[in-house]
């Protein structure tokens, strides 16, 4: 387990009824924590960029998986959930671009950006993804 954790996994996040979605959430939490720990241990920028790229790819795969379950939601909730995914991927891609650009690369700045992404993600799992799996 990482020394520095941004996202603490708990039963709270275990959404009943869909093992794959739970496993993917668990894995994504782990990647965010790995990234956070690496930043705090003064890890090199290439490693930080590399993990962020994996996080982006896995998040894309996870969202695609969730979107196969959207038929369970009313149309307006599908639209909203899809929009959340789109905005999050844009924010994560922008974070990766900033890392690549080397502009404003202080530990404080990177940490703030990662914290904001992590907060969004945690809230999304609890408030949006929970609606996807509860009707299984
Ligand atoms: Fe999710
Ligand atoms: Fe979602």
TrEMBL record:
It comes from the Bacteria. The keyword Transmembrane does not apply. SUPFAM superfamilies: Hemerythrin-like. GO terms for molecular function: metal ion binding. Residues 18-133 form the Hemerythrin-like domain. Keywords: Iron, Metal-binding. InterPro entries: Hemerythrin-like, Hemerythrin-like_sf, Hemerythrin_metal-bd. Belongs to the hemerythrin family. NCBIfam families: hemeryth_dom (TIGR02481). This is Hemerythrin-like domain-containing protein. It comes from Lacimicrobium alkaliphilum.
């Amino acid at each position: 387990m990482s020394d520095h954790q941004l996202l603490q996994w708990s039963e709270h996040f275990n959404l009943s009824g869909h093992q794959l979605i739970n496993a993917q959430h668990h894995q994504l939490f782990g990647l965010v924590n790995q990234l956070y720990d690496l930043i705090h241990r003064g890890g090199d920028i290439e490693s930080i960029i590399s993990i962020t790229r994996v996080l982006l790819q896995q998040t894309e795969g996870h969202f695609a998986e969730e979107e196969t379950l959207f038929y369970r939601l009313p149309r307006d909730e599908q639209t909203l959930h899809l929009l959340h995914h789109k905005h999050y991927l844009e924010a994560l891609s922008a974070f990766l671009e900033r890392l690549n650009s080397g502009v404003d690369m202080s530990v404080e700045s990177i940490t703030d950006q990662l914290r904001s992404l992590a907060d969004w993600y945690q809230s999304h799992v609890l408030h949006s993804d929970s609606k996807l799996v509860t009707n299984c």
